Amino acid sequence: MIDLYYAEDDETIAQLVKEYLEQAECQVTVFHMIEDMKQALRKRQPDIILLDWNMPDGQGNDLCRWLRLRWLQLPVIFLTVRGDSCDIVDGFQNGADDYVVKPFELEVLHSRILALLRRAGQRKDACFYCDSLILDTEKKAVFRDNAEIALSQPEYQILLLLMENKGKTVTRRQLLEQVWDSNGSYVNDNTLTVTIKRLREKLRHPACLKTIRSFGYRMEDSL
């Protein structure tokens, strides 16, 4: 099922789109304010985002710019009422992947969503972001406030798993199995506790690395 966030201030249009896409195996969450979508994105990221151009508390291009500072590869489709070339250019400059002009056929919108997700599936994120932290998978490097931080291999692997699952809780068992057991190294639970403690210290105790008591850990933007 496709997890989709939809920013739209027209309740009638939002309901029509939501009903159609949910019949097409999408899970649609509608937001009537930009700030509400930002709050939801800080907790969980969907598979794709639909952005109406004009919102009561701002414009979609401003939200798209905010998104791109945090999630470089999150697919975004703009919905613009006029098809104005200036709107479209501005949208692409701020990070939109595609656009659909209102009024649109629901079947066309759905096909554009599927096409964009196929293209996105062929891309692999080189960098992951959370607040001021950056993890570059090509360089195998981690930065905070543009300063590189040296991590041990287990520390790096833990951070990578958390970054890859940003907005989701990764359990302690998952970390133990994927960081150590996958390499044939079997360690006890205390090793993970100590490694997480050292990782926090090296990263200067970032607010975005959260402990979920009795479960595990989660990366989540706090800004």
* Mean pLDDT rating: 86
| Distance between the ends | 29 Å
**Rg estimate, integer Å:** 19 Å
Q: Provide the low-confidence segments as ranges.
A: none
What is the third-level CATH name, the topology of the largest domain? Rossmann fold
Assigned CATH architecture of the largest domain? 3-Layer(aba) Sandwich
Number of discrete helical segments: 8
Silhouette:
elongated
CATH C-level name of the largest domain: Alpha Beta
Structural class: alpha/beta
Architecture overview:
With 223 residues, this protein is of the alpha/beta class. The protein has 2 domains: 2-121, Rossmann fold, CATH 3.40.50.2300; 127-219, Arc Repressor Mutant, subunit A (Orthogonal Bundle). It contains 8 helices and 14 strands. Helix 6 (153-164) packs across helix 8. One of its GO terms (biological process) is regulation of DNA-templated transcription. It holds the Pfam family Response_reg. Residues 125-221 bind DNA. Keywords: DNA-binding, Phosphoprotein, Transcription, Transcription regulation.
